[in-house]
Amino acid sequence: MSEQPLKRDAALMPLSWQHQRGLRLARRIGLGEADVGDVERAWNTDLEAHFSAEEELLFPFSEDAHAARVKDDHEWLRAMYERLRAHPDDAPLLTAFGAVLSAHIRFEERVWFDALQDALGEKRLEALHERMHARLPDAQNPPARPA
Question: Which residue from 50, 53, 78, 127 lies 20 to 30 Å from 22 (Cα-Cα)?
Fold first, then answer.
């Protein structure tokens, strides 16, 4: 019998909402509907602040293989983004960025966040909630559904 994923705690919801936008971007990249300009807009509005919030607020509670993978993914995505900025016409690199972003988000949502919620407990999650929502004020609301 497989375990059901935990309901996402409110402390992590801003990150999950940003994940939804990131997955939409990754999907659009895979379909050939997004370009480097779209990646740059997402980077400036969500991705870099998202990575920083995870690194500053979540890594102190997670010094395990999950956090190591997330850190490696962040470094890889940052390097890919810089290469994309230098080579905006590199379609294979753009496609690879979308695939890595999608895999990274799915790992966080399906594995890391569930493990964090379980390990942190209610009191730490309550404290994290205030800090996370203050750190990501623009991620307070779920993303609008595409028309």
Answer: 127
